[in-house]
Amino acid sequence: MASDFYALLGVKRTASAAEIKKAYRNRARELHPDANPGSPETENQFKEVSRAYEVLSDPEARVRYDQFGEAGIGTNAGGNPFGGGGVGDIFDAFFGGGSPFGGSQRGPSGPPRGQDIETIADITLEESVFGTKTEVKVRSAIRCEDCSGSGAAKGTIATACTECGGSGQVRRVRQSILGQMVTTAACATCGGMGETIASPCPTCRGDGRIVKEASFNVDVPAGVDNGQTLRLSNRGAVGIRGGANGDLYVHIRVAEHATYRREDDDLVTDVVVSIAQAALGTQFTLATLDGDEELVIPAGVQHGREFVLKGRGVPRLVQGGRSRGRGNLRARVSIDVPTKLSDTEKELLRRYAEERGEPIAAADSGIMSRIKSAFS
Fold first, then answer.
1. E-assigned strands of the chain?
2. How far apart are CA 18 and CA 56, in angstroms?
3. pTM score of the predicted model
4. pLDDT tens-digit map of 256-270
5. CA-to-CA distance for 342 and 353, rounded, in angstroms?
6. Mean pLDDT, residues 133-157
7. Rounded to whole angstroms, how far apart are CA atoms 209 and 145?
């Protein structure tokens, strides 16, 4: 009778991909043949669990399995329950390239990859809206030119490590309560490199790299926001003795603008008008990032009203760094109430209030003085 793949992993049929992955890792550690030597039953269970994970971790295969069971997914060519690459491929994908029980299933992996590095790129709001190309400088490990990254002095070469035979790994057999355990570990003599250097390069001291300031041009896409990070593959530190480069992560920092601020994909600015302009209406030139626009403020406009210029905001970033459409520009009215008035202005406002029948403080009442005293 066919086994239920969800039951094998101990998860519900509604389990997320992360939950399935976590359950598989736990079951794989428990049932792995290295942890259960001489147990055909456990080995078969391990194969079943691995097969269940292979199907449920593939979205398309999972849909077919949910609809038709194992009949909907068929079997792998050659009867390999682990797909094309065997047990090692599964551990490479989910345990960082090696068995969770120590060592690597694939043998030496060559020089280790270099470290990832990060830096900050300062740009203006205009550059974040329209995109730009900027230069960043970082101190990073680069290849040593004197030895071409080999780590060996000129005229010499690295030789295979006699301890591990050039594999970079040593195998150890030990007895435990579970029986005989075979583990692999990096060779201590060569540090897992598989090679030893008799005459190290004097410039890099056998490391194959030196630390130096490097410059990179960064293409900043239109629409990038403050705090977002751009990844430049293979622009990080070079690995030891010719190892691959890590990645460079560029954190974007957008400077504040004197006029505009960003709200999601919109640009917002405050349009300050006087009481008279708000009451009677006005017209003026609004300097947008795309050029000047004539903005008409109608008579009787209220504080906080927004005038929207469609498509004058920030480009909307989509997957792959491309942009699709733009947000809007919102001009928000802010009515400025004067705090200091001349005698003529005060008289005009009193006459205005009398005309509208609005009660105000008498000119000689001293009410403002009393209010100030109460809150002082």
1. 117-123, 132-143, 159-160, 169-176, 179-186, 195-196, 209-220, 229-232, 248-254, 261-263, 266-274, 282-288, 291-297, 306-309, 315-317, 323-326, 329-336
2. 11
3. 0.59
4. 999 999 999 999 999
5. 17
6. 90
7. 8
